[in-house]
Design goal:
With 307 residues, the protein is α+β, with helices and mostly antiparallel strands. The protein contains ten helices and eleven strands. The structure holds L-homoserine (HSE).
Length: 307
């Protein structure tokens, strides 16, 4: 039986101002997925982690993504997937995207790499939609392409990989669950023109900052007047922690995806570690369980590690 092992990384969507249109991949944490090619139209999901996610393909992120791909494959084939997720669902660091992107890249490898990257993103979005009830690629695209990506349009998909300077990322994952679907429901349906102008000026600034490798411009552009004021209320001590991280030298940061994880970007490792200390200090006092990762932007995205 043909088998492949995939390493699928966590991703940070939105990058503060780019709600639903920007994201980047990080090195840690990452999910390992083992997949096997079957000679019949079937999707078999074996849960080997403690998350108890549904195993019916239509209700499962792996399944949703693979079913979308299998609709475009003529042969009688299917897949067996062993789920050993480490990225906790509902963490805000692209857990469902790591599943969906990981299995489509793995399946494509098992089928002799017949699909292009943007086709793989489209298949994976069907899986992501099962978890978030929305059609967005800001975790999936960087997971598959690696690095930092801008999604200029979802339909038709227009994904633009961006250049970026060396960046250290500190991420705190408080062990509380915020469902993306809920974090989207609470957002305003309309925004003022003044806020929209501020927001798109920052998105433009952030894209230019990445491309020009201009850390000051990146720092100035990491501002969100639309989403953060609403969602930050779901994250204990968000304002205090953000203020302390900026004082410790972070370029900027905010809610990772739909939360509850919070990330900060830094120019060097020493600052990223100082930010880690601040995050530890703020959260230790609150009695909420949490993990902190100090990592870097992952320019490869999903990797085939064996097979
Ligand atoms: N752009 C999405 C959101 C990302 O913020 O709802 C979800 O991880």
């Amino acid at each position: 039986m043909k088998e492949v092992t995939i390493l699928s990384p966590a991703t940070i969507a939105n990058i503060v101002c780019g709600f639903d249109v920007m994201g980047f991949a990080i090195h840690q944490p990452a999910d390992k997925i083992v997949m096997r090619l079957l000679e019949k139209k079937e999707i078999r999901i074996i849960n080997k982690d403690g998350y108890n996610l549904p195993t019916e393909p239509e209700k499962n992120v792996f399944g949703g993504a693979l079913l979308a791909m299998m609709r475009e494959v003529k042969e009688e084939i299917g897949f067996e997937i062993e789920s050993t997720k480490v990225i906790k669902p509902g963490s805000g660091i692209g857990s469902s995207a790591a599943s969906a992107a990981g299995v489509v890249v793995g399946a494509n490898h098992l089928l002799g790499n017949r699909f292009l990257k943007n086709e793989l993103v489209r298949f994976a979005m069907h899986g992501e939609q099962i978890a978030s009830q929305a059609w967005h690629a800001d975790n999936i695209a960087p997971c598959i392409y690696g690095g930092v990506t801008l999604i200029r349009s979802n339909e038709p998909l227009d994904i633009i990989p961006l250049d970026f300077p060396p960046l250290y990322v500190t991420v705190i994952h408080p062990q509380i669950e915020v469902k993306t679907s809920y974090a989207r429901e609470i957002l305003p349906k309309q925004v003022s023109l003044k806020d929209a102008v501020t927001q798109w000026a920052n998105v433009g600034g952030l894209v230019a900052g990445f491309m020009k490798q201009d850390y000051d411009l990146i720092s100035r552009s990491l501002q969100d007047v639309l989403i953060e004021p609403v969602r930050s209320k779901l994250i204990p001590s968000f304002d205090k922690m953000k203020k302390r991280c900026l004082e410790a030298g972070a370029l900027g940061g905010g809610i990772s995806g739909s939360g509850p994880s919070v990330f900060m970007l830094s120019k060097d490792q020493a600052t990223a570690k100082a930010v880690e200390e601040v995050m530890n200090e703020v959260y230790r006092k609150m009695g909420v369980e949490f993990n902190v990762y100090v990592t870097t932007v992952n320019s490869k995205g999903v990797e085939i590690v064996n097979g």
